[in-house]
Amino acid sequence: MQLSISEDGYIHYGDTVMLVNPHYHETEADVFLGGDLTLCMTPDEIQAHLSDELEVPCGLSAVQTKIPVGRNTFIILSTDRDATDQVLRYGQDFCLGITGGFENKMLYLSSDHRNLLKSSKRSWLQEVYLTDEVSYRNCWQAAFPDPQLRLEHEGFPIPANAKILINHCHTNRGLAAHRHLFLSTYFGKETEVVAHTYLDSHRVEKPKNHWMLVTGNPRKDSSTMLDLPRPPAEDTQAVEQAMGLNTQ
């Protein structure tokens, strides 16, 4: 699969991206999956053996991979009109569609209030799933991670490959990756994804709710912007002085 390349540094309607929960050190659990985790569609293991068609609704999980394939590449879609190539902005409604490598097939990232019959498998929180039904349950919005600057960023373009929050419009719950809750899937051991907002003592969303819309790398030697090496510091003198390494 080929990800979209952002020429202006922003996300646009119609872009093909990966949704990545960036690496952080999990302090609330002893066993967890580290590294960057990518949101992936996860068909039921039994149904995957019995049928060549995707079962709907289809589950989701988070997995350690930086390679764009059919099960982890999503398309940014408009909710009400054709807005292809227009910049996606903080606070705007959008849908996330995925074909899963199938032709003439589009599933939408969705969620709904939990009940006794419908909740996530491990945490029993509000589940997220893929469905072919177009409805208000497909609607999401992006928000700036820092709550003190959130209102100031409303209406501004969303940068590609930057940390954002992805909130479900109907339930006002944030998309979250549970690195400590594992699922046994058709593809192996992966982690649970839910719709739930985690706040720390300062009412700031925790890293579980942080996501990046990752675009393609224009260089030929790598497929995504995650593959680019981090640039070295241009001037390390101040750092060396602070650490006592430079005595001159």
UniProtKB/TrEMBL annotation:
It comes from the Eukaryota. Keywords: Cell projection, Cilium, Flagellum. It holds the Pfam family CFAP161. InterPro entries: CF161 (IPR055325). This is Cilia- and flagella-associated protein 161 isoform 1. It comes from Daubentonia madagascariensis (Aye-aye).
